[in-house]
Structure formats: C-alpha cells, structure tokens
Specification:
Distance between the termini: 27 Å
Strand order of the largest sheet: 3-2-1-4-5-9-8
Structural class: alpha/beta
Strand content: 25-35%
Length: 214
C-alpha cells in the first residue's frame, strides 16, 4: 500500500509545543494512562505510539516506573519528548515501520498507548495499524486507544495554524474495527472536548481500553 504522509510531519514540526497549549486539559488521556499504570507491574514496557511532546502520557508512565518507548513521525515532536521525558526512549518512526518485517524492530511490549495518532492515517491503513499494534503486544497485552468520533476519511482540516488530514469512525464502527483486529474492549468512555484554539472545533473523544486476544 503506498503511503502518503505529505505535510503531516511538517505540520507537527511547525506546531511544536503549541500543541500542549491548544490541548491543555487531557482528562480522558490521563485516565486511560492511569488504567495502564494500575494494570501493569512495575518495570513493564509500554509503547507510546504518536508520543508527541511526551506530555502528558510518556511522562506519566515514566514517573510511574514503567519503561517507556515513544515513536512519532515528527522530528520536532521527538526532540521535545526527549527533552520533556529524559527517562524515556524516543524514535522518529512511522507505524508502518513497526509492522512484521518492517524497517524498525523495537521488540514486544506489555502495553501500547495510541492517543489520537491513528486518526492521522487514511481509513484504509487503520485496520493494518491496529494489527501492527496487536503484533507489537505480548499475549494478553493492554491497548489504550483514543480517537475522535467523526465519519471522515483522510479529510483536510485547519489545525493550530497548519493543515492536517484526519480520519475517524462513528462509535459502533470503531468498536467493530478494533475487535476485528484481535482486541477485547474492556472499558469505554467519551468526553466532549473544546480545544483552546479557535481553528480546532469542539470534538467528541472516544477512549477504548482493550486487551489483546491471544
């Protein structure tokens, strides 16, 4: 499958730490990371997929004594994550690089967090990305996923002074796609969120807490 990431990483390179200013309240994300922390033993290995600046998730996990590995498509975000979370390990990588036989082998993980990163993919890639997460997890491993509820596919939107392309599902279809990739949905929650910037509209955020089926 040809990959088109045109402009996606560059947008986040330009946004930098303004991302955290635009999204100052991340209650759903923090709560899902707390679920991972409660559910995992000390020293467990966790992948933050689309780590952004490392705040809050990578920092939250690292401060709880978990071994955090973060990946992001944006060099600028990876640099900020390394600065913000010195205890973590961060790589510039595409999720496609992590597929079986892909260009990067980061090993296996006890848990994966993907907070608003898979929505950066075209819909045609999302099921494969979910199967990649399944591959990266140890049997019974945990997966915390956040998406914005929206019936869109590779749709261009203004975003903090830049333009990005996003995809999404309505809630029932999202559940179906996640379960078809080999996950059991353990818990679900949603939040109505109004970002602190005028060019990002209010959104409904869906959080799924999942376990890899063996």
């Amino acid at each position: 499958m040809p990959l088109d990431r045109t402009g996606q990483a560059e947008a986040f390179d330009a946004i930098g730490d303004r991302y955290d200013e635009a999204f100052p309240h991340k209650e759903g994300q923090v709560a899902s990371a707390e679920w991972l922390i409660r559910s995992l033993p000390a020293g467990a290995r966790v992948l933050d997929l689309g780590c952004g600046t490392g705040i809050p998730t990578a920092l939250q996990l690292a401060e709880a004594g978990l071994r955090v590995v973060g990946v992001d498509l944006s060099d600028g975000m990876v640099a900020l994550a390394r600065k913000n979370v010195p205890a973590g390990e961060f790589h510039r990588a595409d999720i496609a690089d992590l597929r079986p036989g892909g260009r990067r082998d980061l090993g296996r993980f006890d848990a994966v967090a993907a907070f608003f990163s898979l929505l950066m993919l075209p819909r045609a890639e999302i099921p494969l990305a979910l199967r990649t997460v399944h591959h990266l997890l140890a049997p019974g491993g945990l997966f915390a996923l956040a998406m914005v509820e929206a019936d869109v596919d590779d749709f261009s939107i203004p975003f903090i002074g830049n333009t990005i392309r996003v995809s999404g599902y309505l809630r029932d279809e999202l559940r179906e796609v996640v379960e078809a990739a080999g996950f059991e949905i353990v818990e679900e929650s949603s939040y109505t969120y109004a970002p602190a910037t005028v060019d990002v509209p209010p959104e409904v955020q869906i959080f799924l807490r999942c376990r890899r089926r063996t």
